[in-house]
Amino acid sequence: MPAVLVVTGPSGAGKGTLIRELVERVPEIEVTVSATTRERRRGEEDGREYRFLSAAEFHARVEHGEFLEHVEFISGQCYGTLRSELARIAENGHTPLLELETEGALRVKHEVPGAVTIFISARVDELERRLRERATESSGEIHERIELARKQLEQAREFDHVIENDDLERAVTELTTLVRGLLGATATMPRR
């Protein structure tokens, strides 16, 4: 069994949607809860959406080697995966699944023996359409994300598995079959 599963891919590839469907079908996995320095939004709970840390606490934990991977964005907001989160999930008898940006995914691949990385891919025109439909970014931000996506798509061969998300049900089935095989587990039907 893999020590950890890592799902990555460009913005708009549908990673979150595929992961939500996967968790419904393969209960042996559990998605890690990332730590962040960003402010908690209304309705969010510490430990559910994120582990909310002050910037000082986040940086102190980085210094003490408590993060498996972390990133600081231009905005100054920090995100990362605490090693203790992987231990918590493993202690519950589950396999941790991380949803990360490509650079973080590559760090985990090199840092954790037995980590399995899965790259979710989509055509650039499809990524742009999805980002525009989401309507969460400005046109300039969408352009920046598309340029980043082009670079990330070139990195796809560095990952253990690549799944093209050109058809949601096909991609979910492929991802479920892959993960079930990796875990030696029997997937359950989705809870609907």
Give structural notes.
This protein has a single domain, classed as 3-Layer(aba) Sandwich (Rossmann fold), CATH 3.40.50. The chain is 43% helix and 20% strand. A hairpin with a 5-residue loop joins strand 5 and strand 6. The protein is globular. The strands form 2 sheets. The protein has a 5-stranded parallel beta sheet, with helices on both faces. The protein has a 4-stranded mixed beta sheet with strand order 4-3-6-5, with helices on both faces. It is of the alpha/beta class and 192 residues long. The C terminus is likely disordered. The protein has 7 helices and 9 strands. It starts with a strand and ends in a 9-residue tail after the last helix.
CATH class category: Alpha Beta
For the report, how would you describe the main beta sheet? Answer: 5 strands, parallel
Structural class: alpha/beta
In CATH terms, what is the architecture? 3-Layer(aba) Sandwich
Tell me the number of structural domains. Answer: 1
DSSP summary, beta strand count: 9
**What do the pLDDT scores average to?**
87
Low-confidence stretches: 186-192
SSE pattern, N- to C-terminal:
EHEEEHEEHEHEHHEH
Task: Briefly note the CATH topology name.
Answer: Rossmann fold
Number of helices: 7
Rg of Cα set:
17 Å
Strand order of the largest sheet: 2-7-1-8-9
What percent of residues adopt helix (DSSP H or I)?
40-55%
